[in-house]
Write a structure and sequence with these properties.
The protein is of the alpha/beta class and about 325 residues long. It is built from 12 helices and 8 strands. Strands 1, 2, 3, 4, 5, 6, 7 and 8 form an 8-stranded mixed sheet that branches. Strand 6 and strand 7 form a beta hairpin. The radius of gyration is 22 Å and the shape is globular.
């Protein structure tokens, strides 16, 4: 009898959980539409042009780039931590209850859509800040530049249009942003490559970023509310990725910005694991074997590298084409 009651209770909980997702998807039809029709992960790898980067090639430009993955999000917390039933099921049920509370109070906020940082995620970002503060660094070194020391190297901090990336940038680079009176530049081309709803942006185009009420508020140095209000530049945020665009489209847009509108010597891009992994698979030479092609950067992991741009002109049509290559020798993982 006890076993039968336990099974009935488990079935009832399962049905209620499935009902929750049915209601959630009804309220977020755009997420369902995007998941069904998106081409985000579908593209053909670009052909390499080895001669454009040969020792005799001229006119090759280089940029210094640092990729930083965001801290753990509430989506990561719920779906990527332990899969053991006695740990995962309570997490999923609590997250459904928390989401329902937001829905019933008429909030546009969400735990799943444009998922914000978890408590651990905020802690990871602050740990990165502490790492930079304590890292012994000579003038002009990466750590020195990132924490805002005086340097001849110009630097800009950019982030994807997803809240977990914006918050990570504010927490981790608060010292530089505060000292230099700079702002995080939001670039929608850094939006994550996936069909999941946590990678759809909740912040409207060209307007202030939407701070989640679920976002951890810290009392140890970062005023996240002030950061969202005054330290984020949304002038380039044109809105969500579209169903007919691909991750490759956005990676190329980033490269075009990097060697075009961008004037800084170093670009620090706070973004996402699948985007970064895809980037190295696309622009590291195919003959090069590297862990960045197969493994995700950990939350708040950081990697520095140089990317090259060579413009090749077709002598017949006089049309030009830009090729990009990550210099394998330049890669430095911060661990």
């Amino acid at each position: 009898m006890v076993v039968v009651l336990a099974l009935k209770l488990a079935l009832a909980v399962l049905l209620l959980y499935l009902l929750f997702w049915a209601v959630w998807l009804f309220l977020h039809k755009d997420a369902l539409y995007y998941r069904r029709f998106s081409k985000d992960k579908k593209w053909k790898k670009i052909d390499e042009n080895h001669s454009a980067f040969s020792a005799s090639a001229t006119g090759v430009r280089r940029k210094r780039v640092v990729f930083v993955r965001h801290g753990e999000s509430l989506w990561n917390f719920n779906f990527n931590r332990s899969k053991l039933p006695h740990k995962m099921i309570p997490r999923l049920l609590k997250s459904a209850v928390d989401e329902l509370k937001l829905i019933f109070k008429g909030s546009n906020d969400s735990l799943f859509y444009d998922s914000p940082l978890s408590d651990l995620g905020a802690e990871q970002a602050l740990n990165l800040r502490t790492f930079l503060q304590k890292h012994p660094a000579s003038a002009g070194s990466t750590a020195s530049i990132l924490r805002g020391d005086e340097s001849k190297v110009s630097c800009v901090i950019v982030a994807s249009n997803l809240r977990r990336a914006i918050s990570t940038a504010l927490h981790a680079f608060w010292d530089r942003l505060h000292t230099k009176e700079e702002r995080v530049l939001v670039l929608p081309c850094l939006q994550e490559i996936t069909v999941n709803p946590d990678a759809l942006a909740i912040s409207p185009p060209f307007s202030g970023p939407v701070l989640s009420e679920l976002e951890p508020r810290r009392s140890d140095g970062t005023n996240i509310e002030r950061g969202y209000r005054a330290m984020v530049d949304m002038s380039q945020h044109t809105g969500n990725k579209t169903v007919d665009s691909t991750g490759l489209d956005r990676m190329l847009q980033f490269n075009e910005w990097l060697f075009g509108a961008n004037t800084a010597d170093m670009v620090v891009a706070v973004g996402h694991s699948l985007w970064f992994k895809s980037y190295f698979n696309e622009f590291l030479p195919s003959a090069v074997t590297h862990e960045l092609k197969t493994n995700k950067l950990p939350n708040c992991g950081m990697v520095e590298f140089e990317i090259e741009c060579a413009t090749v002109v077709n002598q017949v049509t006089q049309s030009s084409c830009a090729y990009y290559r990550v210099d394998p020798v330049s890669i430095k993982l911060f661990k």
